[in-house]
Amino acid sequence: MHITIKTYNDTRNMEVPQTESALYKAIGEQLLNLSVPNRLLVSTPVGEAEFDVKQRGTFAKDGTIYPSMYVTEEYNTIQLPQDTYPEAYLTCINPVSNNYKFYHFRPSGSVLNATYGRIGAGRGEAFGKKDLKTPYPIHLYWIRYYEKLSKGYKDESSIYLAPAVSETPVAPTIPDQRPEAIELYQKLYTYAKGMVERHLVHHDKVTVEQVSQSKKILAELSTKTTLKDFNETLQKLLTISPRKSRYVKSLLAVKTSDFPAIIDRENDLITAMEVMRPSGSIGSFREHNIHVFEATDSQRQEVIEHLTPSLQQKVRKIWRVIPDRQQKTFNSYCKEHHIRYVRQMWHGSRNANWLSITENSIKILPSYENGRMFGDGAYFALNPNKSFLYTSSSSAKYTNEDENVVYMGLFAVAYGKPLYVESSHHFTPRELEEKKKNCVHAKAGRSLREDEIIFYSEAAMVMNYLVEFDA
Known about the structure:
The protein is an alpha+beta fold. It has 3 domains: 2-155, no CATH class; 179-273, no CATH class; 292-470, Phosphoenolpyruvate Carboxykinase, domain 3 (Alpha-Beta Complex). It has 13 helices and 20 strands. Strand 17, helix 13 (429-434) and strand 18 form a beta-alpha-beta unit. The longest helix is centred in the middle third of the chain and has 21 residues, at 179-199. The relative contact order is 0.09.
C-alpha cells in the first residue's frame, strides 16, 4: 500500500506491504536520522496517525552530545490486523558516560513487555534490572525499537537469544566409565566455569554465536595499532560478552602497551567460554574421543624424568591422555612433512584453559603484532620451570593468579628440523616453509633466559600427559 510520512523538514512517499509490522517498521526507520524535536504525520489507505518526537535527556556519540528522543503517539486511526513480533535484545556501551545498558523486548500477544537496566546489576541495585511498569501496545514495537537504536543501542539478539554452547544432549548417567577421567573432567570444568562466572554477566548461558563472534572480533582487535581503534573494537567485544564491571573504562586500554595483556585476557576468557555447557548438562572426555587414564608406574617415571628436582617434589597426580582425533592429525602432519624427530616438551597455562586444551589441543590465537617475541604460535619449553611461570601458581610470572593446585601438559611435538635463532622476530608459517624448517628454536642468551620452541601449526603437537602440581 502507498503511505506518506511528513516531518518538519521532509515528506516521504513509499510503498509497504499492507501488514501492521511492515507499516510501523517503515515509520520507525524514519527515527534513525530525525532531528529532535519533531513530528511524524502518517497517512495510509487504512487510517492516519501522528507521533510527537520529544527530547528526553542527551547522549554522547564520538565526542558529540545529541538530544535523546522519546516518541509519543498523539492519535491513531489505522486499522490493520494484529501482527507477531520477534523477541529482541539490545545493548548500549559508552565509556564516556559510563553507559553499559541493555533493553530486552518481550512481545506477548497484544502488548510489548520489556526488561531493562545496567548490564551486570541485579534487581534492587542502583540502575539494576527492571521490568516496564506499563507495557506498550504491540503495534509500537518498531517505534520503540528504532527509538533505542537512535540513541546508540545495538541489536545483539543473535548473541543473547541464541542456543547455548553445547547443543548435543549427553546422557547424564554414564558420562565416562573411568573414575579418574570423571575426576579430571570435573576439576577442569570447575576452573573454566569459575573464569566465566567471575567475568561474564550472563555466565549461565554462553551461546555458540557469542563464542564465534568473540573470536572474530578478537582477531580484528589484534590488528589495531591506535588506541582509538583498539578501544572501539574492544567495545564490540564487551557488547557481545558483557562483564561484571562497574566502570566500562576500567576494561579499556589506557596506552598501547596495554594491548598484549588485554588480548591475552580476552583469549583466556573465550577459551573458557568455549567449553561451557547448558545448566544440568554433564560433559565428558568421551564426547571428544579422548581417553584419560591414571598414569602407570612406568609412565609416571617417564614424566618425572622430564622434570627438575624442585618440580618433581610438587607432583600430585599424572594422567595419560590419548586424544584420538588429535593423535591422527598429528600423525598425518608428521607423515606429510617427513618429520621423524618427535620430542616431548612442556606447556604451561592457567587452570581455566586446560579443559579446552585437552579437548581441542592448543589453539594458535592472534596476538598484538608485537605481543609475542616470535610471532603467533604455540610456545613450548625444554625446561619445565619456564613453563611453570605460565600456570596459575602465585609464583608464576605471567598470570597473576593464586591457586593451590596447577597444571602443565607434556606434549609430543613435531620438532623435525628447527630454525635456531637468538633474537626476536615475528615469524610466520610461510617463512619457515621457505627455509624448509619445522619450528623455531629460540636459544637462551641475550633475549631469553631459557630456550623456547615455537610451532606454527596446530597439527604439530598432541598432548601425552597432564600433570597436577602443588602450587
